Amino acid sequence: MAAPRALHASLLGVPLVVVVPAARAAEPVCAEAKALSTVAETRCLIAALEELDGKLETALAVVAREAAAEPGERFLPLWRENLTSFYRTSTDPGRQAEDFRRQRRAACAYAKSVGFQGTGYGIHTSRCELALTQTLLDQLQPAAEWAPAVEMQKPVSYRCAGGGRLEVRYGRLSDGSLSFARLQPPGDQPLTLPQLVSGSGARYSDEQRWQWWSKGEEGFLQRRDDNGPWRTVLRGCRSMEP
User: Fold this and answer.
1) Fewer Cβ in 10 A, N or C end of the chain?
2) Any residues with CB less than 8 A from the CB of 76 and at least 6 apart, and which?
3) Other residues' Cβ atoms within 10 Å of the Cβ of residue 203
4) Could you tell me the fold of the domain covering 150-239?
5) pLDDT tens-digit readout, 67-120
């Protein structure tokens, strides 16, 4: 993988002052629904945006995996520093997608405002968000072209010592190249942790702040501050699934 392609992910942290891309020559998204009614068009656009967001998260996961596999000791730390310090986002694909969606909404609301469009707010902004998301996917090519599908399991709820609770959703890429866990640590945002090599059990970690260990129906969650030692914040967690 060429390093510049992986660095496309760094664009996610840039404050967006956007000129919305011109419409493509192909028929606009949800053209048939538009002919039916405003309600039908709105529902169609929401579904189309959700589908495109799924493709984006998959492509970002592929870029992150490629960055981690880049040979040498210089590229990966530089990539992480570029994302977390300069652009103030994350190396976690889930958080990258969340940051992008937040700034995408703000940019499209701004475009709607300066365009003096007083009606059709939801429809205009949804089409704007579709255009921006497609633009980012185009930048992530060819990762988005051959990106494997994401396969998710149903959420697993854990009850931990002291009354704590944690919900974890395990997933993998369809080609088997990456397994991961999605969870929301106490007092933090939802995140996606890739599975890493471990001596016993399964370890999911961003190698910076959070890691989740699981073995069978049990697990524990650890946190690290400023490269200090890992400390356990949820222990004795046991699956509540029958």
Assistant:
1) C
2) 67, 68, 70
3) 19
4) Lipocalin (2.40.128)
5) 777 766 667 777 777 777 767 788 888 888 888 999 999 998 888 777 655 556
